[in-house]
Amino acid sequence: MTISELSVKAQFIADRHRRLQSQWHTYCNTLVQAITLSKYKLHHAISCEPEEGLRFYLFDHFIIRIVQAPDFNCHTINYVLETRDGKESALIASAELDHNGLLDGRIGNQDRSAVLEHYLAKIGKVYDCLYEAIEKDRPLEIADITPEFAGVALA
Q: CA distances (Å), 67 to each of 52, 57, 131, 134, 155, in order?
């Protein structure tokens, strides 16, 4: 391979990588705006650190962390439920974001209402379990919400 060919490939890789990162940031911004501007109370406290993705604190006990999967050029977004102390965590859902900004191949990452609806569908099980625990007046652990992922360590 010549240096010219290598340069063309390197430029293609860099452009695609930048584009995917740009789509990721757009998704994060859209989701934060959708939650903060929503007329509905979701009881999310937001924390955003670029290298750690988005964090939404639920009822001051659980955290929903939204991160890109760690592989290079990976289009997967992971939705992870954690305890506030970070001792337990489990994957609760995943989505795909392409370099054109489509979420799961059908939702534009700039469409606030569609992005919010998609997110709420991904995390709905968490609210269902929290509601049931409160309604039945019993304690709740992450393993109760995500038994299929109990004990799975996440990066």
A: 7, 15, 25, 28, 10
Helices 3-37 and 112-135 pack at an angle, to 10 degrees, of 60
pLDDT tens digit string along 103-120?
Answer: 999 999 999 999 999 999
Q: What distance in Å separates the CA atoms of residue 122 and residue 134, rounded to the nearest whole number?
A: 21
pLDDT digits (tens, 9 = 90+) for 31-89: 999 999 988 888 888 887 656 789 999 988 899 999 999 888 889 999 999 988 888 88
Q: Strand 62-68 relative to strand 76-83: parallel, antiparallel, unpaired?
A: antiparallel
**Secondary element (H or E) of residue 76:** strand 76-83
Query: In angstroms, what CA-CA distances link 90 with 59, 73, 138?
Result: 18, 23, 21
Alpha helices (H) in the chain, listed in sequence order: 3-37, 112-135, 142-145
Q: Let me know how long the chain is.
A: 155
Q: Which amino acid makes up residue 67?
A: V
How far is it, in rounded angstroms, from Cα 137 to Cα 155? 33
Residue 147: the pLDDT is 64
